[in-house]
């Protein structure tokens, strides 16, 4: 598999991607990839620094004749989102990603691929290792923990970098030049509840929602994809209203920045209503699948009999919880009034856990407008506080305000048009890029973001387009040659 990947063009980039994907690199567990990157820099004889939080900086002098050009910071993040299909046996902490070629795409076997942001990292590694690519002085910045908190970018101190231009290689459309992004904040609702003994006349069932596509909770939030947590709540609410369904456990979703693909619940119903319950579940499942048939053709809602749970959620708490889940917004809250087709503000109900007397609901709210971000955060807070939850805001990070007068933007726009015969799409995105955070300590740095086509990021369907990587690589090389003088 790795051999097949290593034969792809440009080989310098794909070989580094294969090397990188052999190293486990989950967010907040980046010790191995940090060591890998430090060894890489030192083996090249380049100045290599690990800062106080674990970011790695590798500095390479300009090639002959380009010493008078502005120093460029090339930046990507080391960590990757870990998602796998339910039936895939894989240990992200110990195994390298298993890749294969499918036509014009590189994919992974049942897991995320790590193209986000591994292709950016591999690009920078290939430039650092090169002996025949013209470039100005480069400061390669490899940040940690972008996917779960952006603590690497947040912890980067001022003064470590001297570059005047930052190239962030973390965009996923090859015809797009990114000039802005959304900020975000985590909303976590928790509460405890009394468990009740399950009455003898009840029987147990497991309800599962699976087969959803999932995806990036920023870039794909407007696509109408199914959210397993919201679908599960809808099914449970219906069962409670009609058949006295009582919740014992729920386990739905996974990462804050991934649209939930799966959810499971263990419930108890009145035995006398079993036949009617199964009929109703079949009817509501058919209705939901029909609603989602275009976007989610593989959606499954299954109901299977299990041993009756010994404990169930307090009735009053269950009523409040299911109503709060219904009331909590998931999806687009507002589109931008200033940038066509850009989502301004959204929320992803990412994680729901109900077990052993504890409720925990995790959301990620994003917005390119700070006041709107907090407006939606408070909307969610109100919905959950009304049902007795405590709500915590954390992980707040700023957006990146577009600068349409950016000098490097003008250079790159012309280069793209010369190379491809068409204008690029200059846009802000609804993902959380590190540029806004980095700009707090480096306010004078001229920043831009771009990358190759990556589809299905943050899901096991993640894939990178080979022809697009070739197009992107040529663009990178031309940009480095065209960096203006200091």
Automatic annotation (TrEMBL):
What Gene Ontology cellular component terms go with this record? cytosol
Q: Which UniProt keywords apply?
A: Cobalt, Hydrolase, Metal-binding, Metalloprotease, Protease, Zinc
Query: Which GO biological process entries does UniProt record here?
Result: proteolysis
Instruction: Answer yes or no on keyword Zinc.
Output: yes
Which InterPro entries does the UniProt entry name for this protein?
A: Peptidase_M20, Peptidase_M20_dimer, Peptidase_M20C
Is the Amino-acid biosynthesis keyword given for this protein? no
User: EC number(s)?
Assistant: 3.4.13.18
Any one Gene Ontology molecular-function term assigned to this protein's record: metal ion binding
Q: Which residues form the Peptidase M20 dimerisation domain?
A: 208-294
Check the record and name the Pfam families matching this protein.
Answer: M20_dimer, Peptidase_M20
Which cofactor is recorded for it?
Co(2+); Zn(2+)
Q: Which reaction does it catalyse?
A: Hydrolysis of dipeptides, preferentially hydrophobic dipeptides including prolyl amino acids
Q: What class of enzyme is it?
A: hydrolase
The similarity annotation says: Belongs to the peptidase M20C family.
Q: Which NCBIfam families match?
A: aa-his-dipept
Please report the name of this protein according to its UniProt entry: Cytosol non-specific dipeptidase
Q: What is the lineage of its organism?
A: Bacteria, Pseudomonadati, Bacteroidota, Flavobacteriia, Flavobacteriales
């Amino acid at each position: 598999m790795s051999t097949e990947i290593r034969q792809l063009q440009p080989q310098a980039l794909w070989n580094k991607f294969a090397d990188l994907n052999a190293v486990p690199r989950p967010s907040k567990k980046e010790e191995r990839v940090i060591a890998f990157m430090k060894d890489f820099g030192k083996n090249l004889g380049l100045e290599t620094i690990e800062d106080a939080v674990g970011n790695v900086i590798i500095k390479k002098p300009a090639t002959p004749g380009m010493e008078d050009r502005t120093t460029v910071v090339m930046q990507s993040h080391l960590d990757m989102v870990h998602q796998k299909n339910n039936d895939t046996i894989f240990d992200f902490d110990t195994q390298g990603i298993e890749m294969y070629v499918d036509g014009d795409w590189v994919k992974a076997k049942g897991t995320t691929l790590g193209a986000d942001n591994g292709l950016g990292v591999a690009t920078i590694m290939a430039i650092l290792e090169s002996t025949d690519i013209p470039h100005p002085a480069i400061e390669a910045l490899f940040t940690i923990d972008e996917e779960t908190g952006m603590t690497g970018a947040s912890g980067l101190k001022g003064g470590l970098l001297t570059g005047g231009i930052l190239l962030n290689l973390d965009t996923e459309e090859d015809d797009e030049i990114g000039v802005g992004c959304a900020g975000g904040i985590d909303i976590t609702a928790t509460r405890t509840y009394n468990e009740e003994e399950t009455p003898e006349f009840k029987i147990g069932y497991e309800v599962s929602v699976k087969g959803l596509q999932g995806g990036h909770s920023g870039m794909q939030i407007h696509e109408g994809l199914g959210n397993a947590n919201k679908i599960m709540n809808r099914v449970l609410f219906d069962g409670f209203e009609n058949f006295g369904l009582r919740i014992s456990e729920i386990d739905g979703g996974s990462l804050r920045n991934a649209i939930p693909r799966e959810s499971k619940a263990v419930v108890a119903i009145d035995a006398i209503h079993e036949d009617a319950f199964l009929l109703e579940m079949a009817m509501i499942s058919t209705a939901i699948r029909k609603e989602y048939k275009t976007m989610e053709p593989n959606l499954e809602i299954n109901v299977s009999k299990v041993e009756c749970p010994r404990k169930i959620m307090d009735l009053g708490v269950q009523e409040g919880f299911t109503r709060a889940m219904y009331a909590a917004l998931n999806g687009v809250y507002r589109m931008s009034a200033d940038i066509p087709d850009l989502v301004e503000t959204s929320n992803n109900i990412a994680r729901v856990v109900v077990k052993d007397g504890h409720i925990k609901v995790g959301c990620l709210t994003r917005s390119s407008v700070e006041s709107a971000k907090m407006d939606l955060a408070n909307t969610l807070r109100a919905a959950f506080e009304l049902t007795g939850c405590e709500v915590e805001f954390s992980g707040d990070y700023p957006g990146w305000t577009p600068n349409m007068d950016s000098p490097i933007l003008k250079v790159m726009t012309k280069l793209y048009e010369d190379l491809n015969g068409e204008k690029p799409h200059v846009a802000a995105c609804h993902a959380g890029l590190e540029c806004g955070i980095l700009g707090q300590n480096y306010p004078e740095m001229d920043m831009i973001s771009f990358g190759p086509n990556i589809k299905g990021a943050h899901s096991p369907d993640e894939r990178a387009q080979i022809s697009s990587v070739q197009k992107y690589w040529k663009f990178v090389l031309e940009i480095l040659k065209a960096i203006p003088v200091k």
